[in-house]
Amino acid sequence: KAGVTQTPRYLIKTRGQQVTLSCSPISGHRSVSWYQQTPGQGLQFLFEYFSETQRNKGNFPGRFSGRQFSNSRSEMNVSTLELGDSALYLCASSLYGTGREQYFGPGTRLTVT
Amino acid sequence: KNEVEQSPQNLTAQEGEFITINCSYSVGISALHWLQQHPGGGIVSLFMLSSGKKKHGRLIATINIQEKHSSLHITASHPRDSAVYICAVSSGLNTGNQFYFGTGTSLTVIP
């Protein structure tokens, strides 16, 4: 089975712009979770989608949003980028949710200038 | 207040040594995860456990639900074990809940 894929792998954006990141889960996995990793805050949970519905959201501002399509692929969007949004964004898929084994993608490294 | 605390933050060991990384958590959990992250960012799930003990090769993970504590042991450590080890807990099962991470333990194994 192919692993979790994320596109793009690297991205440079300017403050104020918006960005969309994509995650394709392992075939058959219905849960996709998104995480942000920064040197200062470490790994933080953004949100989880299951069967096209957001089941839970971490403590992030409304500028961070996501969606999941019927084929379980997920996108996350960050609007009005700030310098502090520079981070590695990881997605993970699992069969049923975050209480199950997570399979992580390679991440998208976003740099905001 | 951190829901998940790990120790030590940094660890240097000689090849062959027995290594222990500790994790304590303060929330109710459905599962505890041990993750490994190599330079470059990729994360691999090593263990997911909700009780008892699991073993995979030279790696052993244990959890004590009553004490809200877990340990990851590496026997006969090897330089390829050098990585950041992260403890994480999920507070839900299938209904979707928060996923809390420890700050990670950076392990360096010297040949």
Task: Map the helices and strands.
The complex is a heterodimer of chains A (113) and B (111).
Chain A (H helix, E strand, L loop, with lengths): L4 E3 L2 E4 L5 E6 L6 E8 L3 E9 L2 E5 L6 E5 L5 E5 L8 E8 L8 E2 L3 E5 L1
Chain B lengths: L3 E4 L2 E5 L4 E7 L5 E7 L5 E7 L2 E5 L2 E6 L4 E6 L8 E8 L8 E3 L3 E6 L1
Parallel strand pairs in B: 2-11
Antiparallel strand pairs in B: 1-3, 3-8, 4-5, 4-9, 6-7, 7-8, 9-10, 9-11
Brief characterization of the structure:
The complex is a heterodimer of chains A (113) and B (111). Chain A has 113 residues and is mainly beta. Chain A has strands at residues 5-7, 10-13, 19-24, 31-38, 42-50, 53-57, 64-68, 74-78, 87-94, 103-104, 108-112.
Structure description:
The complex is a heterodimer of chains A (113) and B (111). Chain A has 113 residues and is mostly beta strands. Helix content of chain A is 0%, strand content 53%. The mean pLDDT of chain A is 93. Chain A contains no helices and 11 strands. In chain A, the strands form 2 sheets. In chain A, strands 2, 4, 5, 6, 9, 10 and 11 form a 7-stranded mixed beta sheet that branches. Chain A has a 4-stranded antiparallel beta sheet with strand order 1-3-8-7, with no helix packed on it. Chain A starts with a strand and ends with a strand. In chain A, strand 5 and strand 6 (53-57) form a beta hairpin. Chain B is mainly β and 111 residues long. Helix content of chain B is 0%, strand content 58%. Chain B has no helices and 11 strands. Chain B starts with a strand and ends with a strand. The model of chain B has no long low-confidence stretch (mean pLDDT 91). The interface between A and B is medium-sized, with 28 and 26 residues.
